[in-house]
Structure formats: structure tokens, C-alpha cells
Design a protein that fits this description.
The chain is mostly helical and 83 residues long. It contains two helices and no strands. 20% of the residues lie in helices and 0% in strands. The two termini are 22 Å apart. The radius of gyration is 13 Å and the shape is globular. The protein has one domain. The structure holds zinc ion. Zinc ion (ZN) binds next to loops.
Amino acid sequence: MQYRAHLKLFKGRHNCLWCHITSADLSKPLIQRGSFSLRSLQTLRDDHTRFLSQGQGDIKMAKFYHNVIGDAIFDIPLENVRI
Ligand SMILES: [Zn+2]
């Protein structure tokens, strides 16, 4: 799936709310980016669980868990979120 809209919300290696594009790939011209898997509530939960268990909640390790350092505040599917 080609995914072109990226919403940069925070600093870090994975700074798009909607997908797992890296900040390095985000700086490339659009035609060179390729495609990236989309985030979902389940991937956010899984990344957060791994951040706490494997990364021991160390903020320096956040980049290995797609920058998910907190649990989702609302249980609303991302496709229903408009900004
Ligand atoms: Zn994106």
C-alpha cells in the first residue's frame, strides 16, 4: 500500500502518527520513499508493551519501539481520527 500523507507530530526516529516511516526516509523525495506499514491501536499497544518490557521504559530506547512511550489515551481507531 502506497501511503503518502505523513503527519509529523514529535521528534524521533519514527515521528509520523499514521505509519512507521523513519525520519530519515521522511526527508527523502516522495518518489524515493517506498511504502511503510500503518500504525493501528494494536501496533501502538504492542510497541508500548515492548517498550516497557524489553526497553525497560528507558526513553533512550524509544526509537526501537516506533517512539511509542505511552499507552493510548482513547480507544479510538486511528482511521477515525481527523486533525
Ligand atoms: Zn506516515
